[in-house]
Write a structure and sequence with these properties.
Distance between the termini: 40 Å
Organism: Martelella mediterranea DSM 17316
Shape: globular
Largest sheet: 7 strands, parallel
Radius of gyration: 18 Å
CATH architecture: 3-Layer(aba) Sandwich
Family: Belongs to the short-chain dehydrogenases/reductases (SDR) family.
Helix content: 40-55%
Strand content: 15-25%
Number of domains: 1
CATH superfamily: NAD(P)-binding Rossmann-like Domain
GO molecular function: 3-oxoacyl-[acyl-carrier-protein] reductase (NADPH) activity
Number of helices: 9
EC number: 1.1.1.100
CATH topology: Rossmann fold
Pfam families: adh_short
CATH class: Alpha Beta
Length: 253
């Protein structure tokens, strides 16, 4: 799909992977709406790229619908959706602090998995009535999983389960979207330099980076954005989950 002139929605667009993706899309000529729970961060970034900032809690269906309706009113039906909103909880099932609260597990599923589906369903609804492009496409969605979906570590039961759900969602969603000309792919990043990792001591960041076979460093959000762009622009990519991890395979801890 040609990005120039298209309406695009990026969840989690105020920071990290989402911010880099929103900038990439804006630079490529898209009309970008940044959906984020942290509206202040979204507004600040939107101001620098000429985008539209909208507050959205992806775990709340009504919030997602309101944000999509506002984006559609401003930019038209979305042709591009990139889902970067998410949380990364870390807690053992049972530890010296007690048993993991069920609510903690539910929240990870609600934000990471249900939040992905909540936006995907809105894309399908909005794009289904649009005229297909020259390639036959109506829209493309890029979701974000994690290599934890495959090699979840100790303390990542909730996170790994939620991201495993995103992986499992990809192919059936792509199959359903086929008759509508809507492609669905997923990126499974490894260890990337996001706000959460930047808060760690420099020595800890370097140690994590050195665990990656090559290149032995943290991934850069712009590298995620570059892969998202390639997926968007290549119409044959559909129903695929692509690891972006420098050949990292995580151990138990």
């Amino acid at each position: 799909m040609e990005i120039q002139g298209q309406s695009a929605i990026v969840t989690g667009g105020g920071s990290g992977l989402g911010a880099a993706t929103a900038r990439m899309l804006a630079d490529a000529g898209a009309k970008v709406a940044l959906l984020d729970f942290n509206i202040e961060a979204a507004e600040q970034h939107a101001a620098t790229i000429g985008g539209l900032a909208l507050r959205c809690d992806v775990s709340d269906g009504a919030s997602v619908e309101a944000a999509f309706n506002a984006a559609i009113a401003a930019h038209g039906a979305p042709r591009i959706l990139v889902n970067c909103a998410g949380i990364a909880p870390a807690q053992k099932i049972v530890s010296s602090k007690g048993t993991m609260p069920l609510d903690a597990f539910v929240r990870a599923i609600n934000v990471n998995l249900i939040g992905t589906f909540a936006t995907l369903r809105m894309l399908f609804e909005a794009a289904a009535g649009e005229t297909p492009l020259e390639t036959g496409e109506r829209a493309v969605a890029v979701n974000t999983a994690s290599i934890a979906a495959y090699e979840g570590q100790i303390g990542q039961t909730a996170y790994a389960a939620s991201k495993g759900g995103v992986v499992g969602l990809t192919l059936p969603a792509a199959r359903e979207g086929a008759s509508l000309g809507i492609r669905v792919c997923t990126i499974a990043p490894g260890i990337f330099e996001t706000a959460m990792l930047k808060s760690l001591p420099q020595a800890a960041q370097e140690s994590l980076g050195q665990s990656v076979p090559f290149p032995s460093r943290l991934g850069q959000p712009e590298e995620y954005a570059r892969l998202a762009r390639f997926i968007i622009e290549n119409p044959m990519l559909n129903g695929e989950v692509i690891r972006l991890d420098g050949a990292l395979r995580m151990g138990p801890k």
